[in-house]
Amino acid sequence: MASNGDRDRVQRDGAVIRQESGVGIDIPLQTQYRPPSSTQVIISDSMVKEVQEAIDKLLNNKVESLPKEKHIRSIIIATWKEQGCNVFWTTLSKHDLASQALVCWKAMYVLHRVLRDGHAKSISRSTKYLSYLNTLQKRWAMFQGGYNKLSLTYLRVVIEKIKFHVKYPVVPSTFKIELAKVQYTSGDHLFQMEVDILEYESALLSLQGAIFGELDPSKGYTTQVAQCRVAPLVPVIEDQTGIYDLSYHVMQLLHSNLPAELLAGHRERYYRHYNAMRKFLLSSKSLSYVSSLTKIRELSIDPPIFVVEENINEVELMSPISENLPPPPLPEQSIPDESGKDDLIEQLLRENLELKQRLEELEEGGERKDKQIHALGTKLTQLKIALDELKKTRDEALEEKQRLTFEIENLRERTKMEETLNKQKAKLDETLEKLKRCILN
């Protein structure tokens, strides 16, 4: 239930206005917990309290640290009990997301997890908050760098995700879909669907670039600060893996039913995303925290081919044949006599054989080059992974060195203190002996 301390919100035309850092942000009015009807789900006070405590613990911690999984799990389980996410949004809207970038960053991570793993109605119930999320997006677009940029790019991801799943309810929030359900019924529908898929992929790639841009390899990736920034990569990779399969399936359907030239823009953007995604997944494999929590796909260096010969029509158009033009004159040739025919046939056979051998040599050379390029690419990837591991080992060694140095300094201080105490004890013993002698005399 809404607490008595939440009186600073003012109702206006079915919305609630909260003043955060001088900025008015429209937050849709939360549904008050009415007595449940026969079709409503009973929302217990204990469940509301559990969700509120979990969100408060996640967002009230202003330290750059990894959000605790037990709190996120409690929130997700509550959406299944509630069959929605009203309790989640009621509590989330009380936090200041418009002036604290770190809080907004953590909130978007929790929201992404709720949209992915929460009850299916969490997506549709979140649509009324799109204007609120858009307002936050405009807010953080005014600032640069750090968690400002991270929050901005993450807001775009959750906004695009909500819009996509509402528009295409056949696709579940986890993107784990039976591809046979997506069939060619209308060219316009699938064409627009691929546009929306590529738009969400673009948002995911932007977030990935922002995260890697904020990481400092010299400080390692195992610190609390680094894990706070890379934690969203896990649901991002899981979304990306599912949407890649869906995108490939839709592209195949489109190319099977529409002219290739009509899909040139789709192919160009698809290949651009493919190369960026492949590089990102390779980089993510070096992050032990991410690779330990989710399976990271390894994409081939060669993207899928949807059109074998895209330029055939262009070549035909460039060299049209007109029936009105006379045929070109044939060059004059000397007609060999009967005695020279055998020699000419043998010469042509030799030339044909030489050409075949030359063609086979060129094909073998091309295959060898392809294998060498592939081997070099694999070796380069392995070297990058090894380099990242060495950097990680170096960072751990530096941390261990710092710890040992600190302990050595402490030991030195203790040794000095013990020496001082021993000297003082010796002086006291000497004074005591003198006193004893004086007393005896």
TrEMBL record:
Residues 43-172 form the ENTH domain. GO terms for molecular function: actin filament binding; clathrin adaptor activity; clathrin light chain binding; phosphatidylinositol-3,4-bisphosphate binding; phosphatidylinositol-3,5-bisphosphate binding. Gene3D superfamilies: 1.20.5.1700, 1.25.40.90. Keywords: Coiled coil. Signal peptide: none annotated. The keyword Metal-binding does not apply. Transmembrane segments: none annotated. GO terms for cellular component: clathrin-coated vesicle; cortical actin cytoskeleton. One of its GO terms (biological process) is clathrin coat assembly. SUPFAM superfamilies: ENTH/VHS domain. Residues 345-441 form a coiled coil. The keyword Kinase does not apply. This is ENTH domain-containing protein.
